[in-house]
Each structure stands twice: as C-alpha cells, then as structure tokens.
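Why does this matter for the project? Reviewers at the last site visit asked to see concrete outputs rather than summary tables. In response, this paragraph embeds two records directly. Each consists of the residue sequence and, immediately after it, the corresponding structure tokens. Nothing has been edited or filtered.
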Amino acid sequence: MEWMLLPLKRYFEFSGRSRRKEYWMFVLLQMLIWVVLTILTVAVAGGAGMMAGASADGGASGMLGAMLGMGILGIVMMIVWLGLLVPSIAVAVRRLHDTNRSGFWLFLMAAPYILGYIMVVVGVASESSTLAAVGGILSLAGLIGAIALLVFMCLPGTVGPNRYGADPKAGEHMEANAPTAI
C-alpha cells in the first residue's frame, strides 16, 4: 500500500527517479479506483432503471433519480481524475528519468493524439475527409508512441546515478553484489 500512495506524497515532484514498482503500483491504484467508480455508476443506473419500471408515473421519477445520481458520480469521477492527473504525470516523468530519458518523451504519445483529435474534429466539421484522415493517421502515431512508452515504463532503470539523480534501488544493488560470508 505504501508504494501505491508514494506518488501522492510526491505530488508535484517532477525531478528525481521512480522505480518500476512505484509506477506500476500507482497505476494499479488508479485502476482499482476506476473499477469501483464504474461499478457504482452501473449500480446507480441499473437501480434507477428498475425503479423507473416500477413507478406509477411511467418512470419519470426513477429516470430523474438516475440522472441525478449519475451526475453526482460524474462530478466525483471528474474530481478524482483531476486529483490524480498531476501525480500520474509526475510519476511517469520520474519513471522515464529512471531509464535516463527526459520527461518530454510523454509528448511522444500525447502530442499526436491531441493534434489528431483536433484535426479529426475540424475535418468532420468542415467536411474535409483529407483532414479527418490525416487526424486519424496522427492518432495511430499516438498509439505507436503509447506502445513505445509502455516499453520504456517496463524497462529496468539505469544502475547507479544518472543525470536525473541517485538510483532509487541503490541499497538493493549493494546487497545483491555483496559477497556472502561462509
């Protein structure tokens, strides 16, 4: 649990290095949070749907309750997403630092997606199939960038200090290379 919460303790810390364990445990924490919130959303929508079928007014009050409940959960999900955005980016940057890469590698994934999305929207709005197609190709480039980042996040960090700081596993490397007493 300590590894899951460590990026929240280092909220705005973009310098230094983070181990794979810290990064992936935080990813796991985020996934668990999203699974719980999704289950709550489905439960609220399903419960309200059952109420709508059983109500005397043809379901209007049940659907209103569902919309209110899902609206509140939507706001909660947005707050959670905003709260986790900065530590997610920070731990990803520190993880890239551990592999001796700059945090700007995150743009490898983000920039093509954002630019591609904008081009698709503009292309559809202006009825330009060429612009929309180029946007789709840029989105594909973003997917390739995401795969490259996934590989970077899975690679072990550089052993010993690098240009971004000391090795977060320094004590473990020492113990692994220490001679054993007979």
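We now turn to the second protein, recorded in exactly the same manner.
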Amino acid sequence: MNGTGGAGMGDFLETAVRFPAVIFSLPLAVVLVYWMFSVIFGVGTSVADSAEPGEPGGFAGALTPLGLGGVPAAIPVSLVTAVAWFTAMAGTELLDAGWQRVATVPVALLAGWLGAWLVVLPLRRAFPDETGIYHKDFVGRVCVIRTGRVSAAFGQAEVAADDGGTAIIQVRAEGPEAEELTSGRRALIYGYEPEGAFFWVAPYDSGELAPEENRRPA
C-alpha cells in the first residue's frame, strides 16, 4: 500500500512539473505561502485597498473591469491561480497532443476567471465598507505597528476607521526613526505613496492614545 501511495504522489508531482501545469504550479506555490504567512504571522494585503475617487485604483482597480473587484485583491488572484492550476493539471494528465496542451493554457485562465467571478460575486456583500475607505482618509491618523520592524521595504500597521472598525495597512519608514518602530509602537501616518501602495509613518508618542486620537492627532 505504501508503494502505491508513493507512486501516486510521484505521478502527481511529475504532472505538476510538466507543461502546461508547470506554468501555474509556481504561482500556486506563491499563493499558498502568502496565505500561510497571512494566517500565522498576520502578514497580508492591506484591506485599505480601494481607489481614491477618480483614480484607477492600482492593482485592485485593474481587477474591477474583469468583474473581480469589491474584495481584497488577494482573494480573486488566489482563486484564479488555484482554478487555473487544477484545470491545467487535468489537461496535462488527459491530453497528449502538443497543440491541445498549448490550448489548455488560455482555457485554464478562462476557467480560473470564471471560478473566481462566481465566488467573488457573493463575497462582495462581506466587504461593504471596502469602497468607502480611501487612502487620504488615513493620512494624519495615528496607527499601531503590527510587525516586528518597519523599514523602507517592509511593515504593517493597524489604524482605526471612522466607523469604529480597523484596517491593516502597509507602512514604510526610513532613517533612525525606522529603528524605533517595533510591534506595538504608535506611529503617525504622514503620507501615501501611490506607486508602492503604502503609507509613510514616523514615531508618535504623545501620551496615552485616546480613541479620538486614532482619527486625527492634535
């Protein structure tokens, strides 16, 4: 029985690294690692991912014309990747002709889009506040660092929204100030970088943080 199981796993891995399944195997691995880090370490995409009025909205905004907007971008991207991979795996296993396997690639992408669209459609109801959060609303607020460190390339923080909820945002800092920003420290959001989709922060220590301070510091 063990030999049969080992052979089955070997066949599975062999299929995963053959064309066209291999095209989607690496993206699927990236997606799995992303969600593992999101669950274990709380590292993930900012929920403050909506576009400013009149702005295209970056990567999340690019998904809207495809019918995949209204939820955090990681969700439809993960769904497209997973469904496309399963479709490509089936094509790799069942089809022998070269042209058929080549044709499997666009078919897998179409299946991924359709599967993601069907899931995202009802999921939009779970994110009713997503469209009401804009980047400019967070500039000038005080946030709490949620990662062990903040640098010019890494960092996340939690900030309160006007409705009483909270949002996890991507933050960055440079110079000596960045060394002070460790998990649990408060920081002032003083700018937003649209190209990198993150906020610039600096240490903020002005007494105890009252609820209203998390909206606008004096």
